[in-house]
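Dear support,

We are seeing what looks like truncated structure output for some complexes. This example has two components. We would appreciate it if you could run it in full and send us the complete token output so we can diff it against ours.
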Amino acid sequence: MNRWSDRIAWMIRIALAAVFIWAGAQKARHPQLFALDLEAYRILPAGLILPLAYYVPWLEILAAGALFIPVLRRSAIAIVLGLLVVFTLMLALAWARGLQIHCGCFGAAGHDPTDFVVAILRNLLLLGAAAWLERTQLRPGRMTNASE
Amino acid sequence: MKGILLICLAALVPALAQRWWQPPEAFRPRSALTDGAGAGERVTLQTVRGWNRPVLWVDARTRAEFESGHVPAATLLNEDAWESLLPEFLGRWQPGQPVVVYCGASCESSRRVALRLRLAGIQDVHVLEGGWDAAQTLRP
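Here is the complete output from our reference environment:
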């Protein structure tokens, strides 16, 4: 059972890392386009848009990489969870306000208005996976297995 | 907690390096209205009419919308077919000529097209306030 659990944990880590590295890399390619996407949500103060557009992609990439570093794994999962919660709340707010925007989830890789239902469901799936990692793999008694 | 701080601080390094290497020179905030110097993002039709120089109009909507009606002499340029439409735009644009981009009234694509043009090195690019609704008054 534990062996299966560890295999699933590995697969989830790889999937989360792939999504975050891909998303971060696409945003980091064109931070100014990502800034436009952030601005379109009309949530953030103008002075924060550009700093976040340069910073968030690299935080995603580094957190994804840290999922494979045993001593940083717990912190990386916490950051991934935090980012997913923030992203999902922003999507939900934009949806509730009826905005027709490009979500910027994967940077300049897309440009059509986002289907918020699909984007929120995708984030909830990722959130569930990250939360499962946090709950089951990093309990004190399992730290050794989780750190292999 | 230390690990979170470490990852967050480590992400600052490439972010600051990229900010230095690729400064955000093409980005214009939504609130920036074009003034006499033409430094802003948004521009009103009245301001464009006051420019005593030929403007290149760019329609950032879909091809179907463009074909159903557009500003006279406007060129189609959108992100759906950026690579194939850009050469036509470049063929019509004269160095130093101001560019005004429009799309639907509440769409964001004109801002994305304007930013992409500035990233391509064309600095005098603006977005029409009111979009296609405002631009329709230019139709013959």
